[in-house]
Amino acid sequence: MTTGFPRSFRTIALIWLGWAVIMLAYQAFAPARLPLERPDRATSFSADETGPGRLKGRPYLSGAFLNTHVAWDSEYYLSIALHGYDDPQMRAVSPASTAEAPVGGLQREHPTWTSINYAFFPAYPFAIRALAAPLGLVGLDPVAAATLAGVLISLAGALAGMWALSDLAGERADDAIRAGFYLLIWPASIFLAQVYTEGLFVGLSFGALAMMGRRKWVLAAVLAAFATWTRATGGLLLIPFVWTWLADGGLRRLRSGSAVTLVLAAAPAIAYLAWRAILGARFGYVEAHYFGRGLLQLRATAQSFADLIDFMQEGDAQARAYYAVEGLAVLAAAVCSAVLWRSHKAVALYGAAILAVALTSGAALGLPRYVIAVPALFLAPARWGRSVTFDRLWSLASILGLAVFGLAFSLDFWAG
What we know:
- By secondary structure, the chain is mainly α.
- It is built from 18 helices and 3 strands.
């Protein structure tokens, strides 16, 4: 297909390595130099979650090793990695819980309740468990070993995502390099260096799209299956897979008796159904009764946006600044997906589907992080970056935003 990937391989790897070192150093330096005044009032709930007692009852966020790389959902991934979904130290959802009035308690005190851990997919924490085992042999305690494993997996996923984007970018090596670089400096890409699923997910999902583009369906199917077991939106890879299969004359080949490629193209759906049969019911319960999220929750989403407008009117500058970035993230992802339609229809459709699901999940929140999975957000600007002016301005704006998000996450403030 294209030759940009091999040509830019070494340059991208060196940029990634330098970025990884800089991010690790920055997250040690910035919080020490610029401690933030608590609490964080960026959202309606963050003030309650970022006060001085924020780590009480949260042992997986209290370790000293790489502590600036764990916050918010990190505890669930570490808990599952170390003790499984029914970890007695974690919180569980009461049968009386609702999205409007969530009720939880410790799993060990309520063994029949549903652990909040079930709201998180298995591939990333299980990968952490596998890598943490040998890391523990060098003297790290279990939480430290799992934390280091989680960060390393995220960083490796970011590199894989860069390589995949470079392959999707086309034959021009400069476009390929810019696409990968723009991924690293997107403000919410701070999550690519944390104990969070974003790094692994972009590596798997972008890799699946790149292999689909090369018509290497077996590898594409395997990567898509693991992407689906990493985040729910991995199942949306079914859309570009089936679109490409149809564009290649799949129906004609199917009528002639060849169904192998169709089965491989359906891998995201097959993987999702397999997960659904094992963990899906409890996932749905926790999402609906505790987090208030779900698929195509139009009414709940409309109410969430209405509540957001009220909060913004009453909120302070922190809230307005944060939600300005939310809005810009949605706009950027939508515009870039539309621009990419002419040249990469399957990839553009996938990005649009991710955006649609994020915007109708029941909560108007976390969008800068969710759109990291939209390939067009990096592929379209990579072309525009042929203009030196655009490249410098896009990079400057992104890096300044990345610095703010990085400092916020490092100090347990809300970063999306």
